[in-house]
């Protein structure tokens, strides 16, 4: 039997083609990200109301942890003419799980669809790049409300950081 007719050889060819396609896509994505290098990343929490202390604290801690991970290789403090990236969350809404589960009307009390939401912006050289991310409120573990809120806030934060990185 010829090797090109072998199921194993066919599987290897398919795997090689898929790897080549994936590698090309990863290389392309890497190229677009490599073009934007920042001198630094700053977190501006002034858009979150001062009364939301725990949420503000949790969100700031998450941003401080996630931004360096997601923007690894895109921050060079020595590049003085590179722009500074400012991340400014402006609102966090954690929907009521009970309202989401029992309401036939999918408009939540705040005019949303009963989803957790994080709204904010990235600012680069004075240009504002707005972003709104949302998540199902059932994402967090059902349990203690404070722990659940932290899990849900972190999920929104992670999504926010990854989407900002894709947009800039």
Tally of contiguous helical segments: 4
Strand content: 15-25%
Shape: elongated
Low-confidence spans: pLDDT under 50, at least 5 residues? 8-34, 99-112
Assign a percent range to the helix content: 40-55%
How far the N terminus sits from the C terminus, by CA atoms, comes to 52 Å
Reading the helices and strands in chain order gives HEHEHEEH
Biggest β-sheet strands, sense, barrel: 4 strands, mixed
Radius of gyration: 21 Å
Structural class, by secondary structure, is alpha+beta
Mean pLDDT metric = 77
Strand order of the largest sheet: 1-2-3-4
Number of strand segments: 4
Search tags:
four-stranded mixed sheet, single chain, 168 residues, alpha+beta
Structure explained in plain terms:
The protein has 168 residues and is α+β, with helices and mostly antiparallel strands. The protein is built from 4 helices and 4 strands; from the N terminus they run H-E-H-E-H-E-E-H. About 24% of the residues have low confidence.
List the helices and strands and how they pair.
Layout: H1 7-34, E1 40-43, H2 53-70, E2 84-93, H3 97-102, E3 116-124, E4 127-135, H4 145-167
Parallel strand pairs: 1-2
Antiparallel strand pairs: 2-3, 3-4
Helix pairs in contact: 2-4
The gist of it:
By secondary structure, the protein is α+β, with helices and mostly antiparallel strands.
């Amino acid at each position: 039997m010829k090797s090109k007719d072998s199921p194993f050889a066919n599987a290897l060819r398919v795997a090689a083609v898929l790897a080549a396609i994936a590698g090309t896509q990863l290389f392309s994505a890497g190229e677009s990200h490599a073009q934007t290098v920042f001198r630094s990343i700053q977190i501006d929490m002034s858009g979150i109301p001062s009364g939301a202390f725990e949420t503000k604290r949790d969100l700031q801690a998450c941003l401080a942890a996630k931004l360096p991970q997601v923007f690894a290789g895109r921050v060079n403090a020595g590049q003085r003419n590179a722009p500074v990236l400012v991340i400014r969350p402006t609102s966090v809404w954690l929907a009521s799980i009970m309202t989401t589960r029992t309401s036939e009307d999918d408009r939540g009390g705040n005019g949303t669809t009963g989803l957790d939401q994080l709204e904010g912006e990235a600012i680069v050289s004075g240009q504002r790049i707005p972003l709104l991310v949302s998540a199902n409120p059932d994402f967090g573990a059902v349990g203690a409300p404070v722990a659940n809120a932290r899990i849900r806030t972190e999920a929104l934060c992670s999504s926010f950081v990854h989407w900002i990185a894709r947009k800039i």
